[in-house]
Amino acid sequence: MPNKLFLRPKQTLQTSEPVFEWALYDLSHQQMKYGAEDSLEGIDQTLMQNGIENTEIVMFWPCNAAFSTKVSLPGNQARFIQQALPFAVEEQLAQDVDKVHIALGEKNKAGEFSVVNIDRDLFSFYFNLVNDEMPSCPFRGIFLDSDSLPLTDESLVICISSEATLLKKKNQRSIRLNTQNLLPYLDSLFLGPVDEGDGEGETFTIAVYIEERVQGEAEMLIAQIEQYPDVMVEKEIIQISEFELLCQNQLQNIKQATNLCQGDFKVLSDSNSTWKKWRAVAVIAGLGFLLQLGVFIGKGMYYEKEALTIGQQALTEYQKIVPGSKRITVAKLPRIIKGKLNQKSSVQSADLGFLSLLGDTGYQYQKSKDRAKLKFNSINYNQQRGELLLEMHADSYDQLERLQKAIVSTGLTAKISSAVQEKDYFRGRISVSGS
To answer: pTM here?
Structure first.
């Protein structure tokens, strides 16, 4: 079971140099780190400096940057519901439905589905930003912050903090608003028309969580809430922040909120658990593979001349079968053939796997004239993205660039990111993936 890193953007609508509130919890659900306002680069540096690995990310999406509604759709088959969903919510949206990311929630007793609508470009920006900046930490999911409040037997749960107030109603309606607007909202809830299905005269139970630092300011507000007819208020002063309350409720996993990572943003978080169980074995196997690779290189020099001859013959035969392939090289031919075979069973590009990427990369490292000046600091593999991440130290940026170009020459995709000049060396990351 991995560590959990929780994130929430502070100013969601401002995408210039975004910062996040964050908290890290270990396997026993104990908090290890907390930050009120940090960049992803700063958070990643903190994890690296403390040697924290095996971590997955859960992000909270502020409700004020989303539009929640309910729709009635016939049938129960997920495929047909997803096809009909854009047409069901189109009239309720203030922008083109094609520019909106739509996440489908659970079906209530009245037969209605809860639906969350978010600007697609905005959601895509944060989704890609977290994946790019923290590639070694896979996504578990993204959830509305208010939707992650601890609601059990109460009719309504409220959390009052120094920044805002979060609410979640039993019918899955959750919102985020300024604390000064709380009473006007509750007026519309308790003094307006009674919803069908709400029992008139029944006691309405409200659980109110109050951050300790705003306890004095909230006393008058609680007293006013208690004046509503048939309302019973249960309040609790919490020693932690509202954000940490959401984190702890997610860790309890009593009832999951709607995961917003759907459709184009779907993540295969469950599949990562199998890989993580065997990651230590795979790393040891990879190191052993590199050592064995050195032996293979010695033997390979003996057979190199014959291999080049056979490779040229294979290329000639391929060019006879496939017209217009005159620019294909012997080095790229195995990758091209493998890709064409895999296209029969997959629409997407073939995932070369950890050992394949590591083997090709290790071979180029052994051939490099800068081998003695290049040092591996860490090796990570992101199964979800099919990407091998090498953090290396070098005397100069040119040495990293020469290794990157050598990897690209084999038909793989390689790029240098986060190259930083330290006191005595360059530190940089090379990400390697299939072509």
So the answer is: 0.59
